[in-house]
Amino acid sequence: MALHILKMAVGVENVEHLCRVQERRLTTMRDAGDPEVLRHWTRNTPKRADEVIDGGSLYWIIKGYVRARQRILSIERSKDSEATKKCAFVLDRLVVRTVLRIARPIQGWRYLEPAGAPLDQDQKIIEMVDMPEEMARELRDLGLI
Predict the structure, then answer these.
(1) Each residue's pLDDT tens digit, 49-61
(2) Partners of residue 77 on adjacent β-strands
(3) Which of 42, 76, 129, 136 is the most exposed place for a label (fewest CB within 10 A)?
């Protein structure tokens, strides 16, 4: 069973901002002639890496809420010029919005068991037959539907 990673998106305002930041990184790589691989670097390598790359995702905490996720394609280990160990989560380019879930601030990353992972927004089934459009819009803005 896949194991997920929970991580703060520091300095990111919303999901659209996250996408813009990542697109800028890819553009910089393309302009430099480097392979366009979306990596998120961190210091600590997960000990349970095999479980993470077996279908796990990186769930982004943005402004106090888990708001989105990206599938982790692989995990790369490396050392920088000062021989400091580091690790990269290689991410799928597709950013999937999730149902909002309050998340407290964390340092680094944490494991997230599948049972605790928020659903993707399109997986949440809501019956809105008699709901006024304005009410539905407000509930969506609050992340409730």
Answers:
(1) 999 999 999 999 9
(2) 87
(3) 129
Distance CA 6, CA 54 (A): 16
Residue whose token pair is 């990111």:
12
Domain boundaries, the chain: 4-141
**Is this model's pTM higher than 0.90 or not?**
no
**Whose CA is closest to 58, among 17, 87, 27, 95?**
95
Burial class (CB in 10 A: 0-12, 13-18, 19+), 103: buried
Phi first, then psi: give them for residue 100, nearest 5 degrees: -60, 135
pLDDT bin (cut points 50, 70, 90) of residue 126 is: very low
